Structure formats: C-alpha cells, structure tokens
C-alpha cells in the first residue's frame, strides 16, 4: 500500500518537511562544500538530528533524509572505502528513523491520537547534485538514460534496503533521469517512491520537457507514491498542479522553495522569500489538487508550521 495514503484518507493532506540545508546553516553549519549537507554525516550528525526534530515538532508528517548529495563516489573522493561510504548512506536513514521514533515516543497519548506516526523518506538527489555544478537548474547532462541508471543503482539499492518508509526522487531536472529512476523502482519490488521535478516555469521541467509528459509517464507505474514539483518558485506551483492533474490520478506533491533564485555562478540565493504567505499559498495549492505539501530550499520550520496551522489534524468524516 502507498505509505502516504493513510494520511490522505485520515486528514486529506500529507505535510512534508522543509529545507534541511537551510536549517543546518541557521544552526551555524558551513555547507560550502561539494557534499553540501551530506558532509555533516561525517562531521556533525547531531545537527542533522536537531533539524529533523525541529520539522517534526513544526508538524511535518514526513522528514527527508540527508542523502540528497550523498553518493558512493562523492564519499569515496574524501578517502572513504566503498563499504564505509555505503555504511554512511545507511546511517543517514537510521539517524532519521531514530529521531522520528524518539519524537513519536515523546508525545503524550492525546497528541498521538491527533497524528499518525511520521514517515521517513530516503532522498535520492539527481545526478546534478553529485556534479555540484548547478545543473539542477538546467537539466543538461552528458549521461543518457542507461548511464543515469548505472549512476543511481548502487545508492538506490542501499536505500531500498533501509527502514525508510519510501524513497524521494527529488529535484529531477531531466526526463531521462526520471525514466532511469522509474526503472530502478521496478527492480525493487515492494518499494514506493515519489517523483518530484524542478521546473523552470509553469509547464516545463528544466530540460524543457513538459511536466505533463513526465507525470503521464509516471502514472503507469504501480508503486509511484506521488508525482509533482520541488525546489521551484511558488508562483509557478498553481499552473504546474493543474498540468499534472490533467494527465495523472496520482497524488500531487509540491514542496517549492521560498521564491528566491539560486545564482549558479556565485553559488548563493538572491531575491526575497515569501514566508508570510506560505501558509495561505498552501491552502490554494490544496484547493487546486495538491495532496502532499511542504517546502524546499530556503524554507524553515516556520514555513511548515504555517502549513500545519492551515490543516489541523482533525480526522475526515
């Protein structure tokens, strides 16, 4: 069974967490590194635990692991053996599971009755994340579908064997990459995954493929838990939801960034965020058909708290 479905059946909405790296930086972490937030698995895993806990206490139904930029070749470039790199990827999931369990066990019975035990989604970042060259925002790859499948397969198999509730194929800028990841999902019976794309406007992912084409392709796979968009400006989300719903019956997932723009050359975010409006926008997205809602880069527990405030945990009748 799709692990997201019990939340939708009971509450009508599934709330995803916000930006991991953003909150890590707020706690003082320096992420100016090609491993980005995954570096802290080596240096300060306690900070990652603190961020997971903050999002759970803000009301998230799901926390996403710190494996977005965690790959075997990435860790091995730092001197780790292949087995040590694999163990570190597994540790990222175990860390999130332990923090979820500790949070749940800390709740009084009355609070537990108003929620369901949160899920842990194992992040599968795109090939662009390993490249660390900003190609999440271009979709320009030199690898074809087979090459992308080979790149992802080892990490996918590790994550598929962890206690994560599902996998999160996120920030996908390239349609061939989605096809490759869907093939890996087919290779791991019993596993569910959501697929979310990074988009350049209200109709297209970054490589130029229409989001409707991506959603229609994924609609044929039995164990796709949701399809949608992340790390995309909030202003594009309404149109993207409508484009997806025309062609797919899958739950729609949206977790946009704050509205700032990433400057690839200077490697920093520019512009203004929209924290005050995030909660109100989440209600609009739900009315348009989004079932799973959260935040991505430059969003914080405050953004997720705003979403939860708009969707109190009252069972549907």
In short:
The protein contains 14 helices and ten strands. It is an alpha/beta fold and 317 residues long.
Write a structural description.
With 317 residues, this protein is an alpha/beta fold. It has a single domain, classed as Homocysteine-binding-like domain (TIM Barrel), CATH 3.20.20. The chain has 14 helices and 10 strands. The strands form 2 sheets. An 8-stranded parallel beta sheet has the order 1-10-7-6-5-4-3-2. The protein has a two-stranded antiparallel sheet with strand order 8-9. A hairpin with a 4-residue loop joins strand 8 (261-263) and strand 9. Helix 4 (45-58) runs parallel beside helix 6, helix 11 packs across helix 12 and helix 13 (275-288) crosses helix 14. The longest helix is centred in the N-terminal third of the chain and has 25 residues, at 82-106. It is globular. The mean pLDDT is 90.
Secondary structure blueprint with pairings:
Layout: H1 5-11, E1 14-15, H2 20-26, H3 40-43, H4 45-58, E2 62-64, H5 72-76, H6 82-106, H7 109-113, E3 119-124, H8 127-131, H9 145-160, E4 166-172, H10 175-187, E5 193-197, H11 211-218, E6 224-230, H12 237-247, E7 252-255, E8 261-263, E9 268-270, H13 275-288, E10 290-293, H14 301-310
Helix pairs in contact: 4-6, 4-14, 9-10, 11-12, 13-14
> Residue-averaged pLDDT, rounded?
90
Approximately what portion of the residues adopt beta-strand conformation? 5-15%
Query: Helicity range of the residues?
Result: 40-55%
Q: How far do the termini sit from each other?
A: 22 Å
Largest sheet: 8 strands, parallel
Oligomer: single chain
Give helix and strand order, one letter per element, not per position. HEHHHEHHHEHHEHEHEHEEEHEH
């Amino acid at each position: 069974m799709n692990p997201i479905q019990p939340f939708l059946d009971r509450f009508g909405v599934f709330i995803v967490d916000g930006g991991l790296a953003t909150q890590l930086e707020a706690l003082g972490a320096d992420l100016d590194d090609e491993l980005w937030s995954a570096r802290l698995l080596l240096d300060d895993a306690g900070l990652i635990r603190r961020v997971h806990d903050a999002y759970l206490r803000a009301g998230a139904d799901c926390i996403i692991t710190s494996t977005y930029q965690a790959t075997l070749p990435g860790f091995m470039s730092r001197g780790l053996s292949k087995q040590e790199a694999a163990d570190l990827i597994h540790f990222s999931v175990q860390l999130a599971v332990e923090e979820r369990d500790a949070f749940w066990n800390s709740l009084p019975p009355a609070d537990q009755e108003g929620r369901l035990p949160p899920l842990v989604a194992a992040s599968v970042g795109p090939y662009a994340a390993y490249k660390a060259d900003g190609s999440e925002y271009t979709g320009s790859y030199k690898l074809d579908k087979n090459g992308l499948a080979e790149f992802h397969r080892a990490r996918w198999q590790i994550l598929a064997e962890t206690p994560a509730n599902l996998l999160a194929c996120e920030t996908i800028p390239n349609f061939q990459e989605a096809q490759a990841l869907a093939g890996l999902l087919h290779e791991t019976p019993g596993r569910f995954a959501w697929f979310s794309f990074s988009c350049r406007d209200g109709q297209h992912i970054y490589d130029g493929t229409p989001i409707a084409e991506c959603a229609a392709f994924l609609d044929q796979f039995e164990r796709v838990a949701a399809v949608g968009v992340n790390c995309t400006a909030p202003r594009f989300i309404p149109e993207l939801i409508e484009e997806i719903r025309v062609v797919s019956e899958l739950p729609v997932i949206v977790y946009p960034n704050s509205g700032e723009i990433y400057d690839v050359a200077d490697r920093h975010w520019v512009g203004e965020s929209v924290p005050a409006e995030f909660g109100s926008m989440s209600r609009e997205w739900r009315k348009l058909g989004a079932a799973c809602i959260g935040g991505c880069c430059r969003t914080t527990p405050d953004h997720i708290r705003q979403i939860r405030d708009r969707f109190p945990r009252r069972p549907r009748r």
